[in-house]
Amino acid sequence: MPDLKSPRIVQVTINVADLAESITFYRAAFDAVFNEEISSFQFGVWPSEDFFLLTVAHELNEHGKHDGPAGVSRFGLLVDDVDAAHRRAVDAGAIEVSPPADKLWKPRSSCVADPSGNRIDLYQG
């Protein structure tokens, strides 16, 4: 693992209305792999700077209970091409919240909502 220069978020927990629908969406939109054992979508591999877990809240099972937020979540993903990632997410079932746009204070970005209403900010890498 490369030297850590500052803290970096590596896990966010979301609530989903329909797990099967969410698995289909995140796979189609972002090539995320769902790991049932840890109830998480895995981005990148461990150890690497790309490693990130998007964990689905769940009731008590053999791995314990993982509480989610009180409502929907909002998180950001760094992508190679915001316009392409935004289109792919919408094509996979996301609702457009804000189209890709350039801002003076941040990289090109957009926002979509997944099928459960969680907001995903997409940022140009």
Q: What is the CATH-assigned architecture?
A: Roll
For the record, the count of structural domains works out to 1
Measured as a percent range, the helix fraction is 10-25%
Note the overall shape.
globular
CATH C-level class: Alpha Beta
Q: What name is given to the CATH topology?
A: 2,3-Dihydroxybiphenyl 1,2-Dioxygenase, domain 1
The whole-angstrom Rg is: 15 Å
**Helix-strand sequence:** EHEEEEEEHEEE
CATH 4th-level superfamily: 2,3-Dihydroxybiphenyl 1,2-Dioxygenase, domain 1
Roughly what fraction of the amino acids lie in strands?
Answer: 35-45%
Residue windows where pLDDT falls under 50 for at least 5 positions: none
The total beta strand count reads 10
- Sheet of most strands: 4 strands, mixed
Q: State the end-to-end distance.
A: 20 Å
Give me the number of helical elements.
2
Q: Strands across the major sheet, in which order? A: 1-4-3-2
Give the class from helix and strand content and strand pairing: alpha+beta
- On the 0-100 scale, what is the average pLDDT? 91
InterPro entries: Glyas_Bleomycin-R_OHBP_Dase, Glyas_Fos-R_dOase_dom, VOC_core
Protein name: PhnB protein
Organism: Microbispora rosea
Domain VOC: 8-125
